[in-house]
Specification:
Blueprint (H helix, E strand, L loop, with lengths): L2 H17 L14 E9 L7 E9 L4 E9 L8 E11 L9 E5 L10 E6 L2 E7 L12 E6 L2
Antiparallel strand pairs: 1-2, 1-4, 2-3, 3-8, 4-7, 5-6, 5-8, 6-7
Length: about 150
């Protein structure tokens, strides 16, 4: 093969990579919506987190079973079960980003609100609902999600 043909071929390949965009562009964080549905078991034991399990689902299809440990004043009052609670994540690129420790992002929130905003880096989690006595509207100060085993 001649040097000219190799040069022209190389030039065409490089030009194609520069001109044509990536066929699978990175999903923007605002385009990926993830939610978690969960239940917690709250015990009347000081300094012991409430524990439970849930499922995180994202609009691009993947789901992830998670173990949850939560702390906060609204969870310390009495032994109870919280079921039917949910949370919405924002600024998520992949389902793996929902794992970790979320802490109270809105310390000025009053106890009468129906939801609470927690954050981890740029990802936020808004908690709401529940059919138990625990206060998910303002009582959670730490919410830890790990992969369920």
């Amino acid at each position: 093969m001649s040097r000219i043909a190799l040069g022209v071929g190389a030039f065409l390949c490089i030009t194609a990579f520069v001109i044509y965009p990536d066929p699978s562009p990175r999903v923007d964080a605002s385009d990926l919506a993830c939610t978690v549905t969960f239940g917690l078991s709250t015990q009347a034991v000081p300094n012991k987190p409430s524990e439970g399990s849930g499922v995180v689902t994202c609009d691009d299809g993947p789901s992830l079973r998670v173990h949850i440990a939560a702390r906060g004043t609204g969870l310390d009052d009495a032994a109870s079960m919280v079921g039917g609670a949910s949370g919405t994540f924002t600024r998520v690129y992949s389902v793996a980003e929902v794992l970790g420790t979320f802490t109270d992002a809105d310390v000025a929130r009053t106890g009468t609100d129906d939801a609470q905003i927690l954050s981890k880096d740029r990802v936020t989690l808004t908690l709401s609902g529940g059919n138990g006595h625990a206060d998910l509207g303002s009582g959670v100060s730490e919410f830890v999600l790990t992969r369920a085993r």
